[in-house]
Amino acid sequence: MPRYMRNRDLFRRKSMSTCLDTQISGYQEQVARHQPDCVIYSSESLFRRIDGGRYPRVRDVLSKLGPDPELVAWLRKPSEHFLSALQQKFKGSHRIRKPRAPSYRSVLIGWSQCTGRPVTVHLFDRNSMVNGSVVDDFCHHHLSDFDVAADSLDRGRFVNESLSAESMDILARYRARFHASRDDIFTPDTKLLIRGLAKADRILDAGKPRLKPGVADLVDFSRDDPLWLRDEYGIEFPNFDYARLERRGAKPVAKKDFLLEDIVWIDRGLELEIIGFLVSRSALALNVPGMLWMRTTLRDEIRASASAKRAGKGNGHRAAAERA
């Protein structure tokens, strides 16, 4: 189920099926009202392994969305996928994803077996996609019969904000403090904080998060799926050492807890600047406990992390790595 559908207090896991049926009914009503020639459903949440026991349910849902579905996926290099997924995870959770490659093979085979149709796979790479955009690339490869130009599409009001590593750490700490029990559930105050962090990143010229070299290798070589993608689909990730993977084989990631600072480079001084920016702007109308926590406890935690790093102790925000 897409994570955005959990953005309400009424959601409970036991009511997941009912929530999904309600969402699908809404899609059906829109299709019936507008009578489009083609319907596109897009979500990162759909790229996941489907257990064989769920095939009937998935087929039932797909049949309600329309006939003859065409399945398409754009795939990133494993380490790039992990970093992107980590960012998305923090927008509704404080838990740190375990550094490992996605199971491209089981996901693609599962969807093919479930639907009886092959999945068309493309490389997600700015240098190879049309105009460096996945939307333009999709229109070029799959909507040419409908005369749809990417620049004519209404992109809507939603912007998928990308955050710096420092802002990711602030967000994770906030979620751990105020929403630890609401894993994978978006909240209005979290959205507000994300907008504030994104603005701070732009004004303070905070860079994009970067995986530490050892972590990038850990992810890229944790499965042999890249070899399978190359041989099965002709997908070759740029700057990926296929010879190394062939020579040494995949090395599973050890079961351990990871700190965010173990995974990405974090500038604690910049993080304090971002916090200072946020607390000095009344426009960031977080709840009163949240603002008080940011002015006091959070600042103290970041200063302690910076002091520990200088002392070589490596203290930081700890969250259990996902086992899924």
Commentary on this structure:
- This protein has helices at residues 16-34, 55-65, 78-90, 104-115, 134-142, 165-178, 188-203, 213-220, 225-233, 242-248, 260-263, 268-279, 288-311; strands at residues 71-75, 119-123, 258-259, 318-319.
- By secondary structure, it is mainly α.
- It has one domain (3-212, 255-319).
- It is globular, with a radius of gyration of 21 Å.
- 23% of the residues are buried.
For the largest beta sheet, what order do the strands appear in spatially? Answer: 1-2
Shape: globular
Question: How would a textbook summarize the main sheet?
Answer: 2 strands, parallel
Mean pLDDT: 85
Helices, by number, come to 13
Helix content: 40-55%
| Total number of distinct structural domains | 1
Q: Count the strands?
A: 4
Q: Radius of gyration in whole Å, from Cα?
A: 21 Å
The SS-based structural class is mainly alpha
- For the termini, the CA-CA separation is 16 Å
The SSE string, one letter per element, is HHEHHEHHHHHHEHHHE
Share of β-strand residues:
under 5%
In the predicted model, the low-confidence regions spanning at least 5 consecutive residues are 314-324
